[in-house]
Amino acid sequence: EDHNLRTNTASTVKYDNPPIIEAIFEVYFPVSNKWDAHKEKLYKSLRSLKFDFDKDETINLQRLSVNIQGGKPVSTQQSVPVPRVRCWNKDRSLMFQYGQDMLAVNVLPVYESIEIYLPLLKDVCDIVLSTLSVKSINNLGQRFINEIKATTAMTPEKIFAIYPRLPDQVRSKHPSFALQVETTRDTSKSVALNLEYRGDQAENHKYLLDIYLRSLMFSSAKTDDIIAWMVNEHSCVVDTFEAALTKEGQKFCGKRD
To answer: Which residues on neighbouring strands pair with residue 69, listed in sequence order?
Structure first.
């Protein structure tokens, strides 16, 4: 068994039907000048992977920068469109995407465990980084978006350990809110947690618990180093998710005894 594809404490925390609606494992690197010359070769190489291919789509992303002076926008500038190719599997539960400055694996329900998806990430990394002659990495990331639907009887204070304290007259109206907390920062990574109330849905209150782990000072473009970082730092995501919930909230989200 490849020890590089094993997690540590993260594997010991198990949830039945976890509330994850999307998990993203991402790699960003400097824009490659090899894209135009090798994009067809890259596409053919990736299509050779053992992946249940269905639909491919190419989107063009544009970034908008706004210059603000005196609290007012004075000018805007659009970047040159950046192409992203997205490859879906047949049941739309798994996708990998790539472009001239990034690659990622996106997991939609039902999420199982990180060990299941790292082999695909490793294969995509091997092909994209070598074909585009990537020499360094800007940053790595793991993002886990959880959707938690709670009945009216299950108040947010019972679920979330970080739910903001609100006056009784305000809390009874259950206003919308968004709370962002940086839970971890050291020399190698930062972890940000976002908790957002998304309003009512049928008889339920809907919350998004979004956890984003991002590398700091990581530059190696070797696939083994990238996978090792994903494995070694993943427990930070699990620890943050656990810390955001009360014991009752963990049970409500399906944690096994």
So the answer is: 72
Query: What is the helix, strand, coil percentage profile of the chain, to 5?
Result: 30, 40, 30
* Confidence (pTM): 0.87
Q: Write the single-letter amino acid at 85.
A: V
Two tokens, residue 49: 């992977």
Which parts of the chain sit beneath pLDDT 70? 1-12, 62-66, 71, 74-75, 77-79, 170-175, 201-202
Dmax of the chain from CA atoms? Answer: 62
109 phi/psi in degrees, rounded to 5: -55, 140
Give the strand order in the sheet containing 20-28: 53-61, 82-89, 94-99, 102-107, 20-28, 139-151, 204-215, 189-201, 178-185
Residue 152: per-residue pLDDT: 77
Q: Which two tokens stand for residue 242?
A: 């656990």
Q: Phi and psi dihedrals of 236, rounded to 5?
A: -65, -35
C-alpha to C-alpha distances, 76 to 63, 66, 70, 71, 82, nearest whole angstrom: 10, 4, 15, 14, 18
CA dist., res. 22 & res. 77, Å (int): 31
Distance separating alpha carbons of residues 163 and 166, to the nearest angstrom: 9
Identity of the amino acid at 253:
C
Q: How many other C-beta atoms can be found within 10 angstroms of the C-beta atom of residue 193?
A: 20
Residue 20 per-residue DSSP state:
E
Burial of 56 (0-12, 13-18, 19+ CB in 10 A): middle
